[in-house]
Design a protein that fits this description.
Layout lengths: L1 E9 L6 H12 L3 E7 L7 E3 L4 E4 L9 H4 L7 H14 L3 E5 L4 H10 L4 E5 L3 H7 L7 H4 L2 H14 L2 E4 L10 H5 L3 E3 L23 E6 L10 H11 L5 E6 L6 H9 L6 E3 L8 H5 L4 E4 L14 H7 L4 E4 L2 H10 L2 E4 L5 H12 L2 H17 L3 H18 L13
Parallel strand pairs: 1-2, 1-5, 2-4, 5-6, 6-7, 7-8, 9-10, 9-12, 10-11, 12-13, 13-14
Antiparallel strand pairs: 3-4
Helix pairs in contact: 3-4, 5-7, 9-14, 12-15
């Protein structure tokens, strides 16, 4: 099977973790994979990675208007042409459109080539854009929840199959799609190779209790603000607590300013960007994993992949009360919840309680690892990926067991 994955970002990209995981797993299963991506950094048009070939947008590279002409937006006809011309070289059997900005050009290209296409909805895009500020006139269109919602539903209808990352997301899609079996849940889970063996990490006497947070940081402090604001109440009762933050290094002005204002120097460590392959070993330093996003329509319809990485690493999880995350934590019994209306002092009390009950933490950790072994692992979700791809290929007249003839 030859699979084309169409991306809206230049690839490789720190935020494109799921497409990378898909490509590596497909390659390990004996299939060929290539990416069609943007080229905003104007790198080589073609690059061979260990697990896939990358084709970067190659039109207008010498034009001063390149960023405008090459922009991956839904109505850019040059993207349709680029995908078609790239596909004529590689002859894919199936397309995967990674999220929504580039989905419509990918769908149109797939239809022109008479190839099936799967839409991978990694986000609830309608709710995501509603949360983003509108700082220029164009944002009234590009960040309109109404228009993005219409686009998302249109692309879902035009695709041969749709993936979402959590069961709660299904409710926001058209009922007709759910009834026809065109939607599947493919979670962004941890691989079994991440699973920590044995019990909790042995801790030395008087060793600091370590809170772990990993995420993507931009200009703002982000969701970690809740924990930072709560940490002084923890430290006034127990100084042997520290917070390790992955995803940002020293030099982040707002984060460092807040740490200084709160008097947390020496208790907060900015560890920099952690390579995805190094995440399991990095998490091994910790005692408690943190997920602290605001609770809203977006976070109630998705789940952070850090939940599964924490569970695989044997970390109990402390999370805000986002519906999918609460459901999994309570189902598994692998952590504690920060309920709506909790004060910073309330959050501190939960952290101190977990710190002072190592037996409870050990039981949570073991239940989390067991859930990864049995249910919440990438082996399970990748089987669903293969099942869906075989299904759409079979409907298109091809299957894994048959010779696939490419007919543009």
């Amino acid at each position: 099977m030859n699979v084309a994955i169409v991306l809206q970002n230049d690839y490789p990209h720190v935020g494109e973790v799921r497409p990378r995981k898909l490509a590596i797993s497909l390659r390990e299963a004996g299939h060929h994979v290539f990416f069609v991506s943007w080229n905003c950094k104007q790198r080589a048009e073609v690059e061979d990675l260990e697990y896939a070939r990358v084709y970067r947008f190659g039109y207008f590279l010498k034009s001063r208007f390149y960023n405008w002409l090459s922009s991956p937006f839904p109505l850019n006809p040059f993207w349709v042409l680029w995908i078609v011309m790239t596909a004529r070289k590689e002859r894919p059997d199936v397309f995967i459109a990674s999220n929504i900005r580039i989905a419509l050009p990918a769908i149109l290209a797939a239809r022109l080539l008479r190839r099936p296409i799967v839409l991978d909805l990694q986000e609830n895009n309608e709710e995501l854009v509603r949360l983003r500020p509108k700082t220029c006139l164009a944002h009234n269109i590009t960040r309109s929840g109404l228009l993005v919602g219409i686009l998302e539903r249109l692309c879902a209808r035009l695709s041969d199959h749709v993936w979402v990352v959590i069961e709660e997301r299904l409710e926001g899609l058209p009922a007709r799609l759910r009834k026809t079996g065109k939607v599947s849940v493919v979670r962004h889970t941890a691989g079994l190779q991440e699973l920590q063996r044995g019990g909790q990490r042995p801790r030395k006497e008087n060793e600091e209790f370590t809170l772990m947070y990993i995420g993507v940081f931009h200009e703002s402090v982000g969701p970690i603000d809740l924990i930072l604001q709560s940490l002084p109440y923890v430290l006034e009762r127990d100084k042997r607590v520290r917070l390790l933050i992955g995803g940002v290094g020293p030099g982040h002005p707002q984060l460092e300013a807040l740490v200084e204002t709160l008097g947390l120097q020496g208790h907060v460590v900015l560890a920099g960007v952690i390579d995805p392959g190094d995440v399991p070993a990095w998490l091994r330093q910790g005692d408690l994993g943190l997920i602290c996003y605001d609770v809203n329509a977006l976070t109630n319809s998705t789940v952070s992949n850090k939940l599964f990485h924490y569970m695989a690493a044997g970390l109990p999880v402390l999370s805000t009360a986002m519906a999918p995350t609460v459901r999994i934590i309570e189902e598994v019994g692998c952590g504690a919840i920060i309920r709506a209306g909790s004060s910073h002092r309330d959050v501190a009390e939960i952290i101190l309680r977990l710190k002072n009950t190592p037996e409870e933490r050990a039981a949570m950790a073991e239940r989390g690892k067991q859930a990864i072994r049995e249910k919440y692992n990438w082996d399970v979700d990748f089987r669903e990926v293969l099942r869906c791809l075989e299904k759409v290929l079979s409907k298109n007249g091809n299957g894994f067991g048959h010779q696939i003839l490419w007919r543009p």
